[in-house]
Amino acid sequence: MKHKRTALVVGVGLCLILLVTLAQWVMAPIHKLNDWEKPIEASRAKNEPWPVNTAPLDSLQRELALRKALLELPKKDSIHLLINLADSSINLFMNGLTIYQAKATAIEVDPLIKRLNTSVYWAQWSIPRKTVFSQANIVKEPVIEKVAPKTQEEFLASVTSPDSLIYDPAFVHLALDNGTQLILSDEANKFGGRTGRKLYSAYRWRRRGVFLKSVITFSQYTYEPKVYLEAENKALTAIYRALPEQPKVVIYYR
Amino acid sequence: MITKVHKSVWISASVVAVFVVLFNLQPLAIALATISWSPGVSDSTLMALEHTGQKELKELDQKLRANVPKGHYLVVNSTVNEFYLYKGEQMVKKDICSTGSYVLLKKSEKEKWMFKTPKGEFRIRNKTKDPVWKKPDWAFVEEGLPVPSANHPSRFEYGVLGDYSLSLGDGYLIHGTLFQRFLGLPVTHGCIRLDDENLELVYKSLPMGSKVFIF
């Protein structure tokens, strides 16, 4: 009898934990959406005009949002990132000009990002997003230190042919200020081979920790929608090296 | 009669079903939460809104296009050692070049030189035909030679920069090279090296003040 009661208590407890976990997990994107709708409410409170949610005007509003965001990018000698999901391109944007374009060979977009209506799209993507955290397995500046030869004989002995360019598997992870996680990966080595996967796995473990903490403390779990793009490693290396440590990012999609 | 096997099959199937349902709950929640309410907009309002939107789109496009140089400009990719010559929005030529080696040459803690091509937007400040290279101090230090006085004849080398050079300021040049086999590799001291044909094309295409973007 006592055993049955204990089993029942444990069972109910486990069900409760499962329920809380499930609720946290299911509600997380909805909380994120509410968060993303805040600029709309703020704008309504100030009686400012905001794009209407009508399907016939949706693509036009998105085109406008892209141009507005591009024009808002600072022109002070800095390179920015433009992700155009509509034509599958990753672009470097500098002083109002696209200076480099790489084709994305595979794209995965989080369902929350995919399904945004015109108003929320405008709220999130009509401005350039700031990068709040970045990590990559690419060396930003591949500096080689050389001690100057003291004599010409020493110089002649140290002359070597330049190395041919070696590109390691590339992985770039940028966390944007609206919570979007932008992941750029080498097309031949998903998540940038061993070193890239290590970085990504560390991020995923951190996220699991955050989720567990939110379950234990009954606090809100922050959902982080992802945009995953694959491209050639040479192109990704060039893009990552060109960008500042925390670049501004513009994303466009239909 | 439900046998033990049947029972375990049922339990397993139920567990799998529960997991399938749970797994799809989040996308389902997203789908439900993003169902958007569209206000009823009359056709005339819709047309007016579209007209205003198209007008605004044209204005923004014009503002964006104003940033694209009308004439020729050069883009240099220092990671893959390539250059792209544009005229307006049209790419005229794409080929290999050589950029900085990223070598940090150390003579002492105080005297060191970093051989990298600077990134950013530059302009052609000066153009020279048959340029002469005035070797800076590092060129001697690198070869283990004593550094001569500022205008010593050993500082002047003829023909090593090719037929033309274009200055980007701060001593950085676009020039030719005797070591054509190294083109496409990061081997320079910060300058941009092109082969003879490309150098002539770039020299003739880019007037003074033309933009050069290096990334």
From TrEMBL, chain A:
<protein>
    <submittedName>
        <fullName>Uncharacterized protein</fullName>
    </submittedName>
</protein>
TrEMBL record, chain B:
<dbReference type="InterPro" id="IPR005490">
    <property type="entry name" value="LD_TPept_cat_dom"/>
</dbReference>
<dbReference type="InterPro" id="IPR050979">
    <property type="entry name" value="LD-transpeptidase"/>
</dbReference>
<keyword id="KW-0133">Cell shape</keyword>
<dbReference type="InterPro" id="IPR038063">
    <property type="entry name" value="Transpep_catalytic_dom"/>
</dbReference>
<protein>
    <recommendedName>
        <fullName>L,D-TPase catalytic domain-containing protein</fullName>
    </recommendedName>
</protein>
<comment type="similarity">
    <text>Belongs to the YkuD family.</text>
</comment>
<feature type="active site" description="Nucleophile">
    <location>
        <position position="191"/>
    </location>
</feature>
<keyword id="KW-0961">Cell wall biogenesis/degradation</keyword>
<comment type="pathway">
    <text>Cell wall biogenesis; peptidoglycan biosynthesis.</text>
</comment>
<dbReference type="Pfam" id="PF03734">
    <property type="entry name" value="YkuD"/>
</dbReference>
<feature type="active site" description="Proton donor/acceptor">
    <location>
        <position position="175"/>
    </location>
</feature>
<feature type="domain" description="L,D-TPase catalytic">
    <location>
        <begin position="72"/>
        <end position="215"/>
    </location>
</feature>
<keyword id="KW-0808">Transferase</keyword>
<keyword id="KW-0573">Peptidoglycan synthesis</keyword>
